[in-house]
Design goal:
single chain, 4-stranded antiparallel beta sheet, Immunoglobulin-like, 37 strands, 471 residues, mainly beta, Neuraminidase
C-alpha cells in the first residue's frame, strides 16, 4: 500500500554550489539571491576568491538538479557586495553595490539569454554618499529597484525603474522624507502596483513601514506604519500575489528575535494583525519570503540548536494559518542568510554555510512544493482506495493514479470511475471518467487556489485529496 508522503520527506539533500578557499556570501533578507523561471534557476552571491569581493552567478537548466560553472559578473579593483537577482522570461536582472567610484553606488547588469551571456555594468546612482542594499522586482518589461541612501545627511529610501527591460533607467525618486534613518527596503510588484517596505526609527525605535504606487512607480501613496511595539522590528521581506501582500521581519518584542508576519488582502490599503511565526529559545533572524499561488514560503536562520541553521515554514491559505517550523540544515558550521524562490511546484533555497571551514554557497530544493504527493483515503477490508496526484502544486496538468482495489476485488475490473474537482465552496469545476490506474488531467483552466478532488465509484465516494494550483 502506498501511503502519503509528508512535506518534510520532499526536501532533497544540500548541494554545495561553490568550492574555493575564499568566503562566498549571500545577501541579507531584503534582496533575493535566487530566482527561477520554469526549469531555469539563477543564483548570485559575492566572493573574494580574486583578492577582493566580486559578484558571481550560477544557473541550473533542469530545476536545480545540476548546475553550470561559476560566472564572474564584475571585474574591477574595488569591492562589489550584496547582489540581488530577478527574472522575467529569458531576461535575468542583477543589481549590487560597488565601490569602484570611491564611494558605494548601485550597479546593474542583465542577460537577455537566461544567463548565458551578460551585458555591460550600468551605474544606477551617482551621488557623493553611500547607496546601499538594493532590492529588485520585475513585472513584464518594467524593472523596479529600491535601496537606501544617505545623500541627504541621513539614510532615506530611494526608488528607480526601467520601462524597457533594463535597457535605460529613469531618475532617482526619494520615497521617504523625515529626520530619522530609513533602512533596508524590500520591493515586490504585481501588475502596475508596486509595494515597498523598509525599517525606520522615526518613532524612536525601528518599525516596519510600507508604501505603494498604483501606476508602476510614477506616483506614490503615503507612508503606512505596519508595526507598533517598543522593541526593534527590522530586516523585512515582502512578496505579493494579485491583491494579497505579505510581509515578514524579525522582531525582539518577546525578549529575543522572532519571525513575525503581516498581510493585506486588498493590495496594501488595509492590514491585518501581526502574526508571530516562531517561538524558539534562540534568535530567529532575517526572513525571506516567496509566494506561489495561495502558498506562502518563508525561510530564515535560527540558533535554537546552538549554532545558526536554516529553517522553513509555509502557509497553504495565503497566510491565514501556518504549518510548523522545519529545520533545513544540520551542519557543524553556521548556516545564514537564506533566500527562497518558487517556480511551479519546486521550492529553491540558497544560503551561505561554514561547514567547510570557510563560507560557501549551498542550495536545497523541494520538488513537490512541500506538500504530499498523495493522500490515503478510505479503507475497506484492509484494502486502500487512493487518489495519488502529482505534481502538487500543479500549473497546467496533473497525473492521477487511482487504485480502486475494492471494486476490482468484486469483479468490476472494467468499472469506470468519475473524478470530480471542486473549489473550496463546493462548486464543481471539472468532471471526468477515469479507469483504475493512471490518467492525465488538464487543469490549465483552473485559477490559482485550493481545490478538492474526489472519485465516485459504483460502491463508494473517495474524498479528501487537496489539489493546489500555482501558476
Amino acid at each position: 500500500m502506498l501511503a502519503a508522503n509528508v512535506s518534510q520527506a520532499q526536501w532533497e539533500p544540500d548541494v554545495r554550489l561553490t568550492n574555493d578557499p575564499a568566503g562566498s556570501f549571500t545577501t541579507v533578507c531584503n534582496g533575493w539571491c535566487v530566482a527561477a523561471n520554469g526549469d531555469t534557476v539563477h543564483t548570485v552571491w559575492y566572493d573574494n576568491r580574486d583578492g577582493n569581493d566580486e559578484i558571481y552567478y550560477k544557473r541550473s537548466l533542469d530545476g536545480g538538479l545540476t548546475w553550470g560553472e561559476d560566472t564572474r559578473l564584475t571585474n574591477n579593483p574595488a569591492v562589489s557586495y550584496y547582489p540581488c537577482v530577478s527574472v522575467s522570461g529569458s531576461i535575468v536582472h542583477v543589481a549590487w553595490i560597488d565601490a569602484r567610484d570611491g564611494n558605494y553606488e548601485i550597479y546593474y547588469k542583465r542577460s537577455t539569454d537566461e544567463g548565458l551571456t551578460w551585458g555591460p555594468d550600468t551605474r544606477l546612482t551617482n551621488d557623493p554618499s553611500l547607496s546601499w542594499l538594493p532590492s529588485m522586482s520585475v513585472s513584464g518589461s518594467v524593472v523596479h529597484i529600491v535601496w537606501y541612501d544617505n545623500r541627504d545627511g541621513n539614510n532615506e529610501i530611494y526608488y528607480k525603474h526601467s520601462i524597457d527591460k533594463g535597457l535605460t533607467w529613469g531618475p532617482d525618486t526619494r520615497l521617504t522624507n523625515d529626520p530619522a534613518n530609513s533602512l533596508v527596503a524590500s520591493i515586490s510588484v504585481s501588475g502596475q502596483v508596486v509595494h515597498v517596505v523598509w525599517d525606520e526609527n522615526r518613532d524612536g525605535n525601528y518599525e516596519i513601514y510600507y508604501k505603494r504606487s498604483t501606476d508602476e512607480g510614477l506616483t506614490w501613496g503615503p507612508d503606512t506604519r505596519l508595526t507598533n511595539d517598543p522593541a526593534g522590528s527590522g530586516h523585512n521581506s515582502i512578496a505579493v500575489s494579485d491583491s494579497i501582500v505579505q510581509v515578514v521581519w524579525h522582531d525582539d518584542r518577546d525578549g529575543n528575535f522572532e519571525i513575525y508576519y503581516k498581510r493585506s488582502t486588498d493590495g496594501g490599503l488595509t492590514w491585518g494583525d501581526d502574526t508571530r511565526l516562531t517561538n524558539a529559545s534562540g534568535d530567529s533572524k532575517c526572513p525571506n519570503i516567496a509566494i506561489s499561488g495561495p502558498v506562502v514560503h518563508v525561510v530564515w536562520f535560527d540558533n535554537r540548536d546552538g549554532d545558526e541553521e536554516i529553517y522553513y515554514k509555509h502557509s497553504e491559505d495565503e497566510g491565514l494559518t501556518w504549518g510548523g517550523d522545519l529545520r533545513l540544515t544540520n551542519s557543524f558550521g553556521d548556516s545564514e542568510y537564506p533566500s527562497v524562490a518558487v517556480s511551479g511546484p519546486v521550492i529553491h533555497v540558497v544560503w551561505f554555510d561554514l561547514r567547510d571551514g570557510n563560507e560557501e554557497i549551498y542550495y536545497k530544493r523541494n520538488p513537490t512544493g512541500g506538500f504530499p504527493v498523495g493522500i490515503e483515503n478510505n479503507k475497506k477490508n484492509n484494502t486502500a482506495q487512493q487518489i495519488i496526484i502529482y505534481p502538487n502544486p500543479a500549473s497546467t496538468q496533473i497525473h492521477i493514479n487511482f487504485n480502486n482495489e475494492v471494486d476490482q476485488s468484486a469483479g468490476n475490473k472494467d468499472e469506470k470511475n468519475i473524478l470530480t474537482i471542486r473549489n473550496i465552496i463546493g462548486v464543481e469545476l471539472l468532471s471526468k471518467q477515469i479507469r483504475n490506474g493512471e490518467s492525465d488531467i488538464d487543469v490549465s483552466n483552473l485559477q490559482n487556489g485550493f481545490y478538492f478532488v474526489s472519485v465516485k465509484t459504483n460502491k463508494s465516494q473517495v474524498n479528501g485529496t487537496k489539489l493546489i494550483i500555482a501558476k
